[in-house]
Amino acid sequence: MDTWMRLMANDGSIVFGRVEDGYLHEYEGLDQAVPTGAVLSLRTLAPLAPCAPGKVVALWNNFHALALKLEKPVPEHPLFLIKPAESVIGSGVPIRRPAHYAGKIVFEGELGIVIGKRCRNASLAEAEDAIFGYTIVNDVTAAGLLAENPHFPQWCRAKGFDTFCCLGPAIVSGFDWRSARVVTRLDGVERQNYPLDDMVFTPAQQVSLISQDLTLEPGDVIACGTSLGVGSIGDGATVEVSIEGIGTLSNTLGPRPDGDAQSPAGAGRERQSATVA
């Protein structure tokens, strides 16, 4: 197995490469796995999300145990939504509560598939070959918005806010997902612990079937869906999602935004103050 990270240097430049013994062996990029020859100490680099996806395809109802609990039929094709690139953050970066939303925010610990080759209408073999590696995802959701409008379930809005897609801390190629488990802890208390071999669609099946619907580009991520144990994150709480062999993704839900911007009345007072000033 190889571990890959994306990091920022002191001059603001972004580097990507294979990590070994505390050093980053730089490569041209995720879609160009060609070494540049540069070797950099990790002590001089700040970690970022391990890739910069153009889109994150997030699955729903992809685990047998959860389908059974929800009394939902197992789907015949992956059920998915799209999380925007702007929602992506790395490990250690705070999750930001939307300024005008005071409701429930939910964590979902998941395995993430990182695409390494452009693929469209891929066979299973082509799909397997297109998988660069695997990472960890916390698919954050503003659960109270899902059914806010009775005429239109707002999946993309509820899951698409800035900072609502936590990725990291690394990508691991050659990872054996079949024997791995996802363990999610909320402020140190275990909330999820489920086997990845309970997935309805394997990673290769996900890539192949989703590529029948849309083109997958290098760096795109498929969040494989979650299983039992999803729960709420309180303001200031820390969610840690761990998969042995990949690492631990840790993010804290920041406090509510300062001021009275939470309410129309507060927004009115801010506008009045600005006018007076």
TrEMBL record:
Pfam families listed in its UniProt record:
FAA_hydrolase
Q: Where is the composition biased (Basic and acidic residues)?
A: 268-277
Query: What Gene Ontology terms describe what this protein does at the molecular function level?
Result: acetylpyruvate hydrolase activity; metal ion binding
User: What keywords are annotated for this sequence in UniProt?
Assistant: Hydrolase, Metal-binding
Q: Which SUPFAM superfamilies is this protein grouped with?
A: FAH
Where in this chain does the record put each Fumarylacetoacetase-like C-terminal domain?
55-253
Question: Which residues does UniProt assign to the signal peptide?
Answer: none
Q: Which InterPro entries does this UniProt record tie to the protein? A: Fumarylacetoacetase-like_C (IPR011234), Fumarylacetoacetase_C_sf (IPR036663)
Matching entries from PANTHER family are given as:
ACYLPYRUVASE (PTHR11820), ACYLPYRUVASE FAHD1, MITOCHONDRIAL (PTHR11820:SF7)
What is the name attached to this protein's record? Answer: Fumarylacetoacetate hydrolase family protein
Organism source for this protein?
A: Paraburkholderia pallida
